[in-house]
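Teaching note: in complex prediction, the entire set of molecules is handled at once rather than each chain in isolation. The prompt given to students was simply: 'Predict the structure of this complex.' The entities are:
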Amino acid sequence: MGIDRRDFLKMAGASAILAIGGLTIVEDITKDIAQASESASESGAVAAGKLAMVIDVAKFKTGDDYARVIDACNSIHNIPVIDDPKSEVKWIWADTFEHTFPEQQEEAHMKESLKEKPFLLLCNHCEHPPCVRVCPTKATFKRSDGIVMQDMHRCIGCRFCMAGCPYGSRSFNWTDPRPNIKDENPDYPTRMKGVVEKCTFCTERLAKGLEPACVEASNGAMVFGDITDANSEVRKVLNEAYTIRRKPELGTGPKVYYVMGGADNA
Amino acid sequence: MLEKMLYGSRNYWIWVLSLLAVIGVGFLFYLQQFNTGLGITGMSRDVSWGLYIGQFTFLVGVAASAVMLVIPFYLHNYKKFGKLLILGEFLAVAAVLMCMTFIVVDMGQPMRVANMFLYPTPNSVMFWDATVLLGYLILNITIGWTAMGAERKGFPPPKWVKPLIYLSIPWAFSIHTVTAFLYAGLPGRHYWLTAILAPRFLASAFAGGPALLIILALIVRKLSKFDPGLDAIMAVGKIVAYAMVANVFFLLLEVFTAFYSNIPGHMYTFQYLFSGLEGHGKLVPLMWTSAILAAIALVLLINPRTRGSQNTLVAACVALFASLWIDKGFGLTVGGFVPNPFDTVTEYWPTVPETFIVLGIWALGALVLTILYKVAIGVREETAGVEAEH
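The expected output is the structure of the full assembly:
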C-alpha cells in the first residue's frame, strides 16, 4: 500500500470532517499524533524538548527529606494551609505506595520497606493530558516544552479537568485561599476562589535558568531535565535504574518517573 | 400570547407566588455561595461534582424526551399525540433552562461563563454540550411558540417549521449523547468509562421524561378545560414501559461486566453504591430505594392492566421518576468519583445551602413550565371547537 500513517490520518480526518463537521477536533488530534511521532523519531533533536522528572525513592530517608521538598514548593507558590482534606490545595505531597500506585495494590507480598514508604506525588505533566483535552476554555494548556499550565484568569471553575485527571493532581479553591496563606511570597501571584490550580514544574524558576524548587531542595534525590535529550541527566538515570510511572496504562504519558529497587540502587 | 400568564385563578397565583418564594430563598443561598465560594457545598477535592451537575445530567434527559412524542406524531403519523406535543416541547424548554442554570451555579467563576464562547474549544465535550443545548432550546422555543401562534389564529403552522421539527429529532439524541460523552471519555473513572453510558442515558431519559409528562398532562387535564387526550396519555405509558425495561437491562449489563470480569476498578463504585466500600456507605439506602422503586415501576408498567388504569399508571410514573432521579441525578455523578484516584473513599452529601439552591432552580423550572403551559392552555381554551392541525 502506498499510503503512510500521516496520509492515512489525513484521509481519516477528511472523512470524519464530512461525517461530523468537527473540523478542528480532527485537526487537533492528527496534529497531536503527528507531533508525537516526530518527537519520538528525532529524540534529542527537538529544540524545545520535553521536560520530565525522576524521583529516586530510596534517597528519601527521613520525614524531614519529604518535608523539605514539599515546603520548598509550598512557601514560594503561596499554597494555602487548609486542614480539611476535602478542600486542601496540594501541588506536591506524599502518600503511600498503595495510594500512589493503586492498580498495584494486589502485590500482597511485596517488600515491607517499600509498602510503608511514602512517595511524592505531583502533576505528571502528561504527554497527552486529559485535563487539557477536556478544558472548555483552553485555560489549561500544554506548552511546547511539555509543561501543562493553568491560566488562572481564564479558568471558569467548571472542574472538568479535575474529573479528567486520573492522578488527583488538581486542586480547586473552594473558598478564597488568601486568608490561609502563612507567609506570602510577593514575587509569586496568589490565586482567587473558584479556580483550579496545580504544579507548574516551576516555570517561573525555569525561565531564570533555575531547577524546580523541589528538585533543588531534594539534595539530588530528584532529577529534572529534557527527556528527548539522550545526554540529559534524566535519561542517564532512566537508563540505569528500574523506574515506574503512575497509571501508564491510561495512555496519558506521565512524565514523572519513580526509581524503584529500594536501598540496593541508592 | 404571553399575556395569558397574567389571567389566572386564585390557586394559580398562590402556586406562582409559592414558586417565587422558593426561588427567592434559593437565590439568597446562591448569593452566599457567590460570595464565599463553592466551599459552602458538600463537594470536595475528591468528589468535585455533586448535586448540581447531577441535576444537569438528569434534566438533559427530561429535555431530550420530547422526541418520544415528536417521532410517533411526525414520522409515524400517530395523530393522537397532536395535543400532547406542545406540552412535551414546552417541558423541554423548561428543562433546558434548568440545565443551563445548574451549569452556571456549578461554576467557580460564573462571571467568566462567556469564556466558553470567547475561546471556543472543540476538543472539549463541554463546549459541544453548551452548543447543542443552546441550539435545542432555540429549536423548541421556536417550534412550540410558532405552532401555538398559528393555532391561535386558526391556521396550520407555517411550512418553514417542518424542517426545524425534523432537525429537532436527531438534535434531541445529540444533547444526551454529548452529555454522556462528558463522562464516558475520562480515563481512570471506571464507572463512567463505558460505551453503554450514552445508550443508558437515552433509555433513562426516554423513560423519565415521558413519565413526568404523563403526570403533568393528567394535572393539566384535571385543572383546565384543555384535554390532551386520555388515549394519548395511556400510549405514552407504553413508551415509558419499553424505555424503562431497556434502561434496567443496560444497567444489569454493566453489573455483569463488572462482577464477572472481577476487575476491581469496575466493581468498586457498584460496591460503594449498593453495599458500601471501606466502611463508607452514605448512598446505600438511597440506591436501594432507587432499585426498589424501579422494580415497582416495572411491575406496574409491564402489566397491561395496571398500566391501563390511571391511578396505577400515575403511581408507576412517580416511582419511576424518583428512582431515576436518585440513580442519575445523584448516584451516577457522585459514584463516579468513588473511589478517588488513590483508591480511597471520600464521601459526599449536599449541604443545606446547596439543597436550597437546587430546590430554587427546580422551582424556577416549574415556574417557566407553569407560564408556558398557562399560555398553551389559554390558547387551547380560546380555540376549543375550532381545532387546527398542529
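Point out the following to students. Chain B touches chain A through 48 residues (CB under 8 Å). Residues 29 and 177 of chain B are 32 Å apart (CA to CA).
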